[in-house]
Specification:
Gyrase A, domain 2, alpha+beta, about 130 residues, 2 domains, 4-stranded antiparallel sheet, rod-shaped, about 65% helix
Length: about 130
């Protein structure tokens, strides 16, 4: 998480910082503190460079904030990934329902195959939705 640290400068790296939304959130949270002189984000490498005034901000305080931040970033990234997967499952479920309905008009065997696929997708979707609520 902490890539480099010298008095007045700290670089934080995390895979989640490659996401523009996460980086924006972190940059605003860190940059708004008193004693922070500059923040530079690099989405390509997933790093955030923070220059600060050591007379106002203690190194211990920054290191503690970086550790707390590091514990929260993976949770944000996982939540975003779950939302993306949930939306994809919803689209697949709708498509399977449509194909199952249309295939019922054409061929009974084809309809049975798509009904099984639809049922499997619906079960997975319900399982994921239940876990998302808990």
């Amino acid at each position: 998480m902490i890539a480099s640290f010298i008095d007045g400068r700290i670089r934080i790296r995390a895979k989640a910082l490659k996401d523009a939304a996460v980086m924006s959130l972190v940059t605003k949270a860190v940059g708004g503190r008193e004693g922070i002189l500059e923040t530079r984000a690099n989405l390509k490498t997933g790093s955030l460079l923070v220059r600060y005034d050591p007379a106002i901000v203690s190194p211990e305080e920054l290191l503690a904030a970086a550790r707390l931040l590091g514990n929260g970033i993976p949770a944000v990234a996982r939540a975003k990934e779950r939302t993306r997967v949930f939306k994809t499952e919803t689209l697949l479920l709708g498509a399977a329902w449509g194909i199952t309905t249309i295939s019922g008009m054409l061929d009974k065997r084809l309809h049975a195959v798509f009904a099984v696929i639809f049922t499997a997708l619906a079960a997975k979707h319900a399982y994921d939705y239940r876990n998302r609520l808990c």
